[in-house]
Amino acid sequence: xxxxxxxxxxxxxxxxxxxxxxxxxxxxxxxxxxxxxxxxxxxxxxxxxxxxxxxxxxxxxxxxxxxxxxxxxxxxxxxxxxxxxxxxxxxxxxxxxxxxxxxxxxxxxxxxxxxxxxxxxxxxxxxxxxxxxxxxxxxxxxxxxxxxxxxxxxxxxxxxxxxxxxxxxxxxxxxxxxxxxxxxxxxxxxxxxxxxxxxxxxxxxxxxxxxxxxxxxxxxxxxxxxxxxxxxxxxxxxxxxxxxxxxxxxxxxxxxxxxx
Length: 260
Known about the structure:
Layout: E1 2-6, H1 19-32, E2 36-39, E3 42-43, H2 52-67, E4 80-83, E5 86-88, H3 93-98, E6 122-127, H4 134-146, E7 149-154, H5 160-164, H6 167-175, E8 178-182, H7 183-187, H8 192-203, E9 209-211, H9 225-235, H10 237-242, H11 246-253
Parallel strand pairs: 1-2, 2-4, 3-5, 5-6, 6-7, 7-8, 8-9
């Protein structure tokens, strides 16, 4: 499985506190069957502002630690970490992308150019605030798509305005966005109402990726398998696996994804 959203890098945001917790989270992920994690620290103006170079450097260091013979992990080299960011939605997000402030998902896989060439799609994880200006967000999604940049909206089921009216998410998807739901939303750790909404989004094809949004080894660990099992009971195992395998892989590789 591929985990497209995890706060696994140490001392950058409210995720892993140190390298030991990072390595412990990696061990949990591998045991769960995850082979690739996109490290997505928060990039939020005035709150968290890790530089692109620092994120890339920590990802490189983590991959080195995972492959080192002295690693305490059970299966060295069986986990790959890629670069990304959980970018807070801002009206100037396109400018941030052009300036290399907002990282693409898998920023170290394809060309490092700020904007993708015509035949490549790049995906950017965007976190909406609980209360947003609907026309502004929809217009931004359209402008990003014009440049072959696809916004992946992180955990919409945990955004207040979408909780009140999930049809807003449908409008964003119609405009060209994808949506990523959180594993623990599916399994109920965020409460019954969020679990109910998440299942509704899945049944209505308004959720395309399942990710852990892991922040720690204990309270919010990187575990996908339980959520995949529950979703498989809802929509079938093939579609559930697509949300943690085929679609995330296409996102990392910059391929166009058709949502039917």
